[in-house]
Amino acid sequence: MYLRGLLFVGVALMAACDSVDNAESDAPTLCLNRFQACVNPVLNAAVASGGGCASSSCHGIGGSGGNFRIENPATFSSFLSAVGMTTPGSPGSSRLLTHPTTGTGHTGGTYSRFEDTNDTCYQDVAAWISTVVSDPNDVVCGSGAPACFTVDPANSCQ
């Protein structure tokens, strides 16, 4: 009896693990190539007050910018970190846009990366957040995606 009960518990646990794994793989995400082409350059571009978000004193390697980390060139870990700062499909409620637009909740000080929601760089990041996919390499992330604005890393997006 004990062995049969243990076997039942083991089978139940395996079934539960399968359902959790499937749920995680179907979680909404965003486009990797669009992040690399459009979003990471925005995060790395200089701003009027100095370096970009990825500077070593902020969210770059060795920076003190909390859990949000970005690198140049873009890495998969930078992509995952940026996705973690979003609400896929909802740019207006994504911390990746609200923090650097209003400075609200940005513990690094009142810092405005974007002038407002009409800023071209804001629009690039918002377009990326709006395209929700189940696979970061989905075909919709390629040729069908709208082109991003050109960012000169030496200048502010503003």
Describe this entry's structure for a reader.
- The chain is mainly α and 158 residues long.
- It has one domain.
- Helices cover 41% and strands 0% of the residues.
- It is built from five helices and no strands.
- The chain has helices at residues 2-25, 32-44, 76-83, 95-102, 120-130.
- The longest helix has 24 residues, at 2-25.
- It is globular and about 40 Å long.
- The termini are far apart.
Brief write-up:
It is built from five helices and no strands.
Could you outline the blueprint of secondary structure elements for this entry?
Blueprint lengths: L1 H24 L6 H13 L31 H8 L11 H8 L17 H11 L28
Give the topology string: H per helix, E per strand: HHHHH
Distance between the termini: 71 Å
Q: Overall mean pLDDT score?
A: 73
Q: How large is the count of helical segments?
A: 5
Tell me the radius of gyration.
Answer: 20 Å
Name the helicity range.
40-55%
Proportion of β residues?
under 5%
Secondary-structure-based class equals mainly alpha
**Overall 3D geometry?**
globular
Low-confidence stretches: 2-24
Topology, number of strands = 0
Main sheet overview:
none
Q: What is the subunit arrangement here?
A: single chain
Counted up, domains total 1
